[in-house]
Amino acid sequence: MATRRPPRPAPVATGRGASATRVRIRVAAAAPGAGATGRAAGPRAGDAEVERSREGDVVTVVLGPPGGTPRLGPRAHASLGEAAREIDHDDSVRAVIFVSAGADFCAGDGPGAPGPGREPDGVAAISSLRVPTIALLHGAVLDEGLELALACDLRVCAEGAILGLGQLLHGAIPSRGGTQRLPRLVGRSRALRMLLLGERISARDALASGLVEQVVSRRRLRAAGEDLAARIAARGPVAQRFAKEAASAALDLPLAEGLRLEGDLYVLLQTTLDRAEGIASFRERRRPTFSGR
C-alpha cells in the first residue's frame, strides 16, 4: 500500500467569504551581476517581487513588480520556495493561483541565470505542492517563466500572450523542467520545435497543442482563474491530493503499477472523514462539508 505521511492536526475552518489575509514578501532589485554564492544571495537585477494573499481556502501568489516584467532571480526562487513550503504545511489550503501584476507573466532571468544546484529552485518547490495549482498567463511567458507555468497543474491564458523557451538561442537549455514537462503536454515533435528553434507560440496555438487548458480575454483572466480555483476547492481535499498524486505518477509508472497505486489510494481514502462525509451528504441530499481529514 502507498506510504502516506501521518495526518496533521485539523486546521481552523476559514469560510470562503472571510476577508483575505495578506502576507507580503517583497524583493528589491539590485545592480546587474549581483548573484549568489554558497551563502545568502543578493537579488539579481529585476528579481521578481512575490506577494501572497488568501481568500477563504484559496491562496494567490502574485509576481511583481506591477507594470514590469517579473524575472526569476535567486531571491524570487527563494520566496517561491518559502511560499510553497508554508502552503504545503497548511491542510486548509485547497488551491493555489499563480498570477503576475506585471505587464508580462514572467520572462525568466536572462542568459546568465545560474542553473539548479547553485540556487534555490522555486519552480521545483511549486511542482511538488500537493494541492492543485493554476497559472494565469498573459503577455510574455518565456524561458523560466514558461517553466514556472509548466510546473503548475492547470494553465489559463489571456489572448495575446506569447509562450516560448528560448534558452538555446543563448547556448543554454532549460534547467527548471522545461525539457521534461513540455513534451509531456504537447508531444515530442512540437516540444522539439519550440526548443530547437526557440519558437514562440500564441495563446490560441498553445490551446490547440494542449499547453494551456483555456484562453480568455485579458480582462477576464483573473476572474476565470478564481472561478476555476473555487470549483476545485469545493471538492474533497483529500481526494484531490490523492487524484493529483495518482495522475502525476501515471506518466512515470507502468500501467500495472499505476493501477496498484490507484487502488491503494482508493482503499486509503475509505478511512478518511472526508469520504464518510461524502457518503453521508449523498444519502442526505445536501452539500458536503469537508474537513480535509
Polypeptide structure, described:
This protein is an alpha/beta fold and 293 residues long. The chain folds into 2 domains: 21-233, 2-enoyl-CoA Hydratase, Chain A, domain 1 (Alpha-Beta Complex); 237-284, Lyase 2-enoyl-coa Hydratase, Chain  A, domain 2. 37% of the residues lie in helices and 16% in strands. The protein has 10 helices and 10 strands. It has helices at residues 74-88, 122-127, 144-150, 178-186, 188-197, 203-209, 221-233, 237-250, 255-269, 273-284, and strands at 21-25, 49-55, 58-64, 95-100, 133-137, 140-142, 154-158, 162-164, 200-202, 214-216. A 7-stranded mixed β-sheet has the order 1-2-3-4-5-7-10, sandwiched between helices. It has a 3-stranded mixed β-sheet with strand order 6-8-9. α1 (74-88) links the parallel β3 and β4. It starts with 20 loop residues before the first strand and ends in a 9-residue tail after the last helix. 42% of the residues are buried. Mean pLDDT is 83; it is low at 1-45.
